[in-house]
User: What shape does this take?
Amino acid sequence: MTTTKKHHIPLTTLDAVRKPIAEANGMPNAVYDDPALFEYERDNVLGRNWAGLLFSSELPKNGFAKPVDFMGLPLAVMRNREGEIKVFHNVCSHRGMILLREETEVEGMVRCPYHSWTYDLNGNLKGTPHIGGVGKHSAEGFVCEKHGLRSVRSAVWNDIVFINLSADAVEFDTFIQPLIERWEAFTGANGLDKVEIAATGSSMELIVESNWKLAVENYCEAYHLPWVHPSLNTYSPLDQHYNLIVNDEMSGQGSYNYNLSDIAGTQLPQFPDWPQEQIRQAEYISLYPNILLGVQADHVFSIILMPQSNSRTLEKLQLAYVGKEATGDEYAACRSAVLESWKVVFGEDVFAVEGMQNGRKSPAFQGGVFSPVLDGPTHHFHQWVASQYAKDC
Ligand code: FES
Ligand SMILES: [Fe+2]
Assistant: This one.
């Protein structure tokens, strides 16, 4: 795929971001506020890495297809008859019609609405009616095998469908392994494979009028907790938090004392292998570029940040609980209390990320500075973004 490899951020500006935290600047206003950089980021900052696209549960059964607009790029996600998820460019090989216009269960083939060419759920072109003239469904020299849908490299983990547009990022397993290892110390081996999405208390969506990177940055730090999240600060206080830098593309924070159950009276099943002496520990990790994850002893959550423009982001949150029994009616009230608690927290963050977005309209702000103690994980993300941009200087 041809990519948009240009931006106008000078290398000296990026180098200033990559200095040690006490001397570093933040990324300049333009990377948040310039609409011209949106496509650049799609093809490069997100496109060269493993970006989250949607939850696989959004394709609820085999033989299901769903169009997804990824930062202006039309994609089609399909779950084939065997249950495998595949991602394609959502464009018909014939005259470039958008193939899928709405999510649908696919009875036989996926059919282009324009001249009725058909594709199977693996993207193979199967039918070309009248291509050789009326009543003649093949044509001299036309080979269907050459004209299937163009695929996008993808992987599924923890119910998230990831894509790598450039097709040359590291293997997905290599990318995700450090996080799996880190969290298996809490959840036990393959712990995240045992979580379940419930019919209620499992999802919410939020639109924020902010660049997607500000949502990542805000998630990386607990510094704002006492002022922005007074309620959360009662059951997971700032002084019980620690900073986390896992590797180049993961940072965030953890809490030693996440204690919603005492405040809200929730009693949900917990990971059986979670060490008892750490039962109130929780971790919140940004998986660059656009995934935010949280793990607690009795539930986990994932947020996919879907950038809609340089200044608007859709946040899709999905919670999952430990084991099938946690999804039953008897736990519905507990699940609802957990979801409500996060609704409050993420709702409280909206004014902060939107305020930072608006602040970037001021030329008086030149990227800002960092607390050398509390902003480490945020600065780590800035360094990562600066390094992505620096590849194209
Ligand atoms: S554009 Fe799809 S069949 Fe012609
Ligand atoms: Fe927050």
In short: The chain has ten helices and 18 strands. Residues 53-156 form a domain with the Rieske Iron-sulfur Protein fold (CATH 2.102.10.10). The chain has two domains: 53-156, 171-390. The chain has a mean pLDDT of 96.
